[in-house]
Predict the structure.
Amino acid sequence: MSRVTIKDKTFETSLPEAEILERVKRIADRINKDFEGKTPLFLAVLNGSFMYAADLMKNITIPCEISFVKLASYQGTTSTGAIKEVIGLNEDIRGREVIIVEDIVDTGATMKRMLETLGTREPAGLHICTLLLKPGKLTVPLDIEYAAFEIPNDFIVGYGLDYDQEGRNLRDIYTLVKE
Ligand code: 5GP
Ligand code: MG
Ligand code: MG
């Protein structure tokens, strides 16, 4: 176990890079089988998924495309508070098999919003492919077809995920050390 300090917090290794890469390869193998003959469009959600998306795509062997979207938060006028808008989607996804590549599904609110937004554009199918899933925190019903790891409800950083925008460059995944 190694420790890192980011700003005011200490984290310790919970998923080493080698273990991550092995799981990511297994997810890619499943996708290669499930989407054979279909040319799916991978849509990676920035910023958190950039490292995962790169490693996943290196193991995809079927014809495919990849593009990137971002979620912009703005304060809504309704009681739901922060609304997230999908920006940067230039592809026509009508009739396409779309695989959403996400870093982590926590409450599931973000993915629900993505599915609603993308669903209006009439894709042939929408599939969630997340690196991490915190099943204990999921509050909306979501069909998560691909999840590399199920993890406890602790805050994590590294391998693309940030703490206050830092730590995305770390090769391993680290968990917050509770004081
Ligand atoms: P949800 O909408 O599913 O509750 O939250 C998803 C988003 O919250 C993720 O895309 C990610 O940005 C952030 N998030 C949730 N849990 C963690 C965590 O443990 N570490 C980091 N760095 N971000 C998290
Ligand atoms: Mg994310
Ligand atoms: Mg973040």
